[in-house]
Structure formats: C-alpha cells, structure tokens
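Colleagues,

Please find the record for the two-part complex below.
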Amino acid sequence: MRRVNHQLSESWQPLQKFWTQPWGLLAAWGLTQFFVFFSWLFFRLPEPQQFSLAVQKLWGVSSDVQFAQKVYVESLGLTATQLWILLWALMGIIALTGFAQHQLKLQLNWPVKLLLVPLLLFTAWQLAPSETLSFIYFDF
Amino acid sequence: MTLPSILYGLFLLSVVGLYWAIERRSLRIWLVIVASIVFYTSLQVHYVPLMLVLVGLNFWLGRVLTMPADWRVPNEQWQMAEQASYRRRRYWLALGIALNVLLLLGFKYIETWLRLLVPSGLNPEIADGSWLAIAFPLGLSFFTFECIAYLVDVYRGAPATRNLPEFAAYKLYFPKLISGPITRFHAFNSQLTTEASLNFNWAVEGLWLIGIGAIKKVLIADHIGTLVNLSFENLPRAGSWDVWLAIFAYGLQLYLDFSGYVDVARGSALLMGINLPQNFNFPYLTTSIADFWRRWHITLGDWLRNYLYFPLGGSRQGLARTALNLMIVMLIGGVWHGNSWGFVIWGGIHGVA
C-alpha cells in the first residue's frame, strides 16, 4: 500500500503535497498506527477460534454491564473511560519524550539521572503488581 | 532468575564487580561465559548442553567456511580448484543455515508434528496431548538468528574467529541471550576484546537504562497486562469498545514490556563497557509501516532486511516484485513468531501495509 501510494503521489502533485501538510501527517500516523495496533490482535490471539470471536466483536456490539463491572471496576478500580484517558495519557507521554529527544535534542544530564535511578527502582519495586508477568518475547 | 528482579540485580552486581576487578582480558571472557551459563541454568538447566553444542557447531562451521583452496595444486588447475572451493563454501553455508533453521522449526513445530503423527483414536492418555508439551528453549530464536548472521557474514568475507571462548562469550552473553537485541559477532567482539576500564558516563547511562526498563516493565506493562489478560479472558462478554480498548492496551503493553527488557539488557551490558544496539526508537510515532519497521525491534528488522529481503532482490526489480519480496519477508517474520494462523495474518497485514 505504501509503495502504491508512493507511485500515485509521484504522478499526482496534490496527493504528494497532502502528505507533507500537518493534516496529512496526522492521517498518515493514524493509518499506520491503526494497522499496527489492529495487527497486534492476531499476535495476542493467534488461534483462529480466538481471533475470529474478537473480529466479530469489533463493530456494533454493545458493552456488557457485567464485563465492565468485573474487568474494570472490581479488578482495576477504574471505569472504561478512565482507562481510555490513562492509556492516551501514556501515549502522550511517549510522544512528548520522543519530541524532546528527537526534535529538541534534550537529554537529562548525568547527576539528574544518577539521582533518579534509586527513585525509579524503588517506585518500580513498591508499585509493582503482586504478580510479575513473564516477558512476552520470552515465548518466541 | 529473570530481569529485572532483586536476584538478577545481585547477580549483575557480582558479575560487574568481578569483571572490572579482573585485569586479564581472557579471564574476563571466561567470566562472561561462566556467568552466562549460570544465568541460563537458573532459567532452563536442561537446555544448557544444547546451547553449548550449538556454539561449538557454529564456531566450527565458521572455520570451515574460511578454509582456503588447496594452494599446492598446479597453476593450470588453480581456476578449477578455486571454483570448487567457492562451491564447497556455498554447500557449507547452506548446511549451516539449514541446521539452524531446522533446529528452530523443529522446536517451534514439534508439538504440531507429533500431533499429526499420533492418531487421536489411540489411548485417551496419549490422545489428550499433554505428554507432547515440550518446553521451547529460551532464546533459541535469537540465538539461531545470530548464528545465521555470523555464518552469512563470514561467507561474505568477514573473518571467522579462531578463538572459541570469544565466540562462546558472544553467543551466550547473558544480557542479550534470551530476547536480544540481535547483535553481530564482529561489532560485539571488538568491544569485548578491547582493553577498557570502567567508564563513568557509561555506568550512569547503564544504571539509568535499568531504572527506566524496570519502570516500563514492572510498573506500567505489568499493570496494563492485568487489564489485557482480563479483557481477552472475558472476550465472549466484551463489547466493541472493550475489544478496541484491549487492543490499544495490548499494543502499549507489548512495546513497554519488550523495550523495558531491552533497556535492562542494554543497561546491564553498558555496566560491563559493552554497547548493545538500540532496539526501539519511538515506533508508535511513525507515519508509515516502513518507518515503523526501522524503529520497532530494529535489530530484527535489520536482520530481515540484510539476510532475507536483500538476497530476495530487495526493491530493485519493480513494484510487483518489491511487494512480493516484502510480503515474503513479513510472512516469514510472522511464522517465526509461532505456528498459529494469527501470526501469519499479522505478517500479512504488515506485508500489505
């Protein structure tokens, strides 16, 4: 798809111009990440009976109250909306860090890093969930 | 012992302390080998002999690949002898690659093959398949990828090492042994064999990476993992928004889990004065799939490009052939992850995009 778009953009100037505009960049980012995140569904549920059930539920299935109660409220103490906000905030932090490193060329200096290391390790130790999950890539 | 954990922290501190206390380079290499074997033993002791045999086998194959043509042949037969030597090297390379690939596929697909071989109408205890569950050797995928890269590099003209301990230290190096980053021998070995003393900046950077890796993995990815596991376990009751939330969460979990591991691995290596390659560079900020693969699991992307995509012809033979090559590479990348249709579809989506 990318190569086809490249060929089309070369022969049609407005399309080429669109991808360099802010809205074009946003659209390119959205499309790319949609494909990437959608593909993770098959990565997480690799068996056909698993992913076919998930695919059937991608559009038009309303939420089950018991699901929300059990998964979000009882287990995590949050609502679905709060979880969406938290995950987007995490995405925002990743974007800000990337912007600071790539565009602004900002890095913490060594005394700050050295001071933060014990704090990071202590925080990870204190706030870790009771059961540490194994690394996903250890399975491959 | 897994990383990051308190036990791993104590193990790492002991190894780093001993590493810098020893001045002789050869002894440092032996320390790395012994520490790596101890590390792997703590995870899967029964596969340690397999790993050692693979190290020896690939070392030997590398040596065979660089054996020159017999110089005693008369002048008029030299050209033929040289051609025979090229042919022989190609056979040895093919054999080396085949051995590594077959071993990897053997372990990945052994359960599937055994299920096909054993008729389900037999004894119910046999038919339930529980006896077929054979643990996959941890790190074997990354191990074989590095071995293939080494053999191909040697075939293409890079010097084969004559030093077995150096090769073993490269192959077994514990920070990267289980999940990479995939490292090439010559880049790694030049760092391992250089007389170096502890560099303060690298040590701080190493500690920083371990701290960041611990936060990514233990604090964020594992908490997100709870949500992901619960969501997918209760899939029959989930609505559309719940599924999309789980997909979004899993994407973030996967990135933070894997990049957290790599941060700890790179940080551990930096404490020993070894700079392992970067494996992630903000992949979720990319605006094309090609760019995504330049910034997600970078060392695997490089491996697929150098040892699969370019030998297939790369992008030099027109749009259709390029698309076919990309699709082949991504499908193989998918199949490498596991023997389920989901991985094939995952590779297919990336190939199409």
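Chain A touches chain B through 78 residues (CB under 8 Å).

Comments are welcome before we finalize the supplementary table.
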